[in-house]
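Troubleshooting log. The previous structure file for this entry was overwritten by mistake, so regenerating from the original sequence record. Sequence copied from the archived sheet and checked twice against the printout by T.R.
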Amino acid sequence: MELVKTNRRNFSQTITKASAGVILVPHFNINSSRPKLSDTITGHGNFKYKFHKEWGSLDPTKTPVNNCHEMVVDSQGSLVMVGDDVHNNILIYDKSGKLLDSWGIRYKGNHGLTLWNDGEQDFLFICDTDGVMIKTTLDGRELMIIGYPSDYGAY
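Regenerated output below.
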């Protein structure tokens, strides 16, 4: 292997040419990797979106998704979704749409979801439509259950 000496000017010219070559290479086509989007547009105002047809595709007999009420992103970049289906109230996806975990089969109607990180670990606060709030770990271990406020004289 021969060592070639270069100066700052030659180095800059080489980098510029290489950069231009990467941009102009005919087989480099980012458009071919675009996802298949639905024709349906959802949202309003400046926030209108099309759905990625293949992202998060699940077998509805094993992991049905009903009434997604809220989603949060955990510290690892996973999407955590809360819904109403008693087969899997919590669904956790990676960025590509692969299902990583699902749990929470005893909650009858989840409506709110908040993610909280104590500096070391992520926790979920799930608000059930029955007036119960549950604090869990990301793997579904229940740490605290707080009942309906009127049960404690709050109303």
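The mean pLDDT is 78. Archived copy saved in two places this time.
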